[in-house]
Amino acid sequence: MSRRIRLLSVEVIAVLVTIVLFWIPFYFVIVNALKDKKESSLLSLAWPTSIHLWDNMKAVITARDYMLVRAFYNSTLLTLLSIAVLIIVCAMAGYVMQRRTDRATPWLNFLVLSGLIIPPAIVPTIWVLDGLGLFKTMTGLVLVEVALGFPFGVLLYKGFMSAIPREIDEAAVVDGCGGIRLFYKIILPLLQPVTATIIVTSSVGIFNDFTNPLYFFPGAKNATVQLTLYNFQSQFVTQWNLLFMNILLITLPPLFLFVFFNKKIVDGMTAGAVKG
């Protein structure tokens, strides 16, 4: 009985911590997004005396010649392209690293792990992109996002790949499958659980990325959703109601994505951890 009480206490504490760390700030954003300029400047948790939902939403969407609409397009395009490249590259790398074992394998594993440890360098990356003619381009930013997500994706795919018997590869080769056809027709469809995990987790991270678009994709026409927060924030006057409405609008899509696909994330992470 005492053990059950301890477990219940831990669950209650976890719920309370979740409420403090997530729901209270989220409630704070919602209530201030519904207020007018004067009332929102108080930055309180009080419910607004009058609701200004549609007025604030219209002002945010139309600000700076519909900059938020362009930002949603840029962020969506960036996310889709990055995820497509990330899945193909990480799946192929994880497959090769799991199936081949030679003297270079420990070094390859070290390089992949170092990608999780070593922080990205802004200035050298800008220099490389500028030398390749990819600075301030969507292609360059996609390559940066893929490079940053590569180590995590490879480790997940490699761990999940160890559960796929080598006999499947051998049987496919005997039947006349080449390497590319073997991977895309047989192996890749078996990786759907971990692929779903990478899609959701990486999509949220890329869509909400602030630093990389700021440094590697500057310009008003290139703005992503996180950079639109500057529209309503300045040194002297900050329109808190519009700022919080902007935060609310750009938070809802990844939040819904994460909530709806939460089970697939857990399944993919667990499968990769157990089968690796």
Automatic annotation (TrEMBL):
Membership in a protein family: Belongs to the binding-protein-dependent transport system permease family.
Membrane topology recorded in Swiss-Prot or TrEMBL: Multi-pass membrane protein
Keywords: Cell membrane, Membrane, Transmembrane, Transmembrane helix, Transport
Keyword Transmembrane annotated: yes
Domain ABC transmembrane type-1: 72-261
Name listed for the protein in its UniProt record: Carbohydrate ABC transporter permease
Annotated source species: Paenibacillus sedimenti
Compartments it resides in: Cell membrane
CDD domains to which the protein is assigned, alphabetical: TM_PBP2
GO biological process terms held by the UniProt record: transmembrane transport
GO cellular component, one term: plasma membrane
Transmembrane segments: 12-34, 77-96, 108-129, 135-157, 186-207, 240-261
PROSITE patterns given in the database record: ABC_TM1
Top-level taxonomic group: Bacteria
Pfam families attached to this UniProt entry: BPD_transp_1
